[in-house]
Description:
By secondary structure, the chain is α/β, with parallel strands linked by helices. Helices cover 41% and strands 17% of the residues. It has one domain (2-173, 206-233): 3-Layer(aba) Sandwich (Rossmann fold), CATH 3.40.50. The protein is globular and about 55 Å long.
Amino acid sequence: MHLYIVTGSSRGLGAALVKQLAQPGHAVIGIARRLNPALKAEQWTLDLADPVPAAERLQAWLHTNTGWDSATLINNAALLSAPGPLAASDLADLSAALRVGLEAPTLLSRVFLAETAGVPTRRILNISSGLGRRAMAGSAAYCAVKAGLDHLSRALAREAPDVGVVSLAPGVIDTDMQVALRGADPARFPEQARFQGLKDGGQLQTAEATAAAVLRYLQRADFGQNVIADIREA
Ligand SMILES: NC(=O)c1ccc[n+]([C@@H]2O[C@H](COP(=O)([O-])OP(=O)(O)OC[C@H]3O[C@@H](n4cnc5c(N)ncnc54)[C@H](OP(=O)(O)O)[C@@H]3O)[C@@H](O)[C@H]2O)c1
């Protein structure tokens, strides 16, 4: 039995990943604040902005559920704080974005690594972004989260060489996150027009197509050899 834990499972890329992973021989756990009734997988409603109890729940569950042929943690959840300059951003909004996007993956990875020791094949896939590698005004916390995920992945790959660790930029996907970016006030967020142009130009991938590409990447024999990857270059 192959175990997959997917955060941010209620919608967008995470929901598409869970849908495609839910097949015989797989145990799939989705984590988000809300349930998605269309998913045929176990779902935990947890707020990853409060990551210690979430990680403790995963730790306790992994401790009693053992014997996996493989175990994969996909840190996909992210929270975009309202696009705009850092100096004018809401403090609680920024803090939640940092906790969901970086603290939670760090804590979940910590319990995953400790509790799956002995599982023959282990993978951690962090869903990063081009914005972790190229800075953008109006989304400083998001850029920092994704650069942090990339560097967390580099460090984990050194620390746990038997675990495949990849930080993967998934391309531009037609999800609620894009709705928030192109719906932002252009006076606060100069890149708004660029995101509107991506939608108008039909340049967004569907969540389903991106999930299929991400899962193909996950199954590659060389998974983990390049810790920092981009699905558009894979
Ligand atoms: N969309 C893009 O163009 C794009 C581009 C590059 C990278 N990415 C990355 O791809 C990943 C998926 O993005 P997406 O576009 O699918 O995002 P999305 O549509 O905004 O979905 C985000 C997911 O994260 C969950 N989430 C948010 N806050 C949470 C919290 N406090 N606790 C638990 N779960 C929480 C949401 O569930 P609930 O609201 O139910 O909690 C939802 O399932 C993210 O890491 C994103 O940064 C996306």
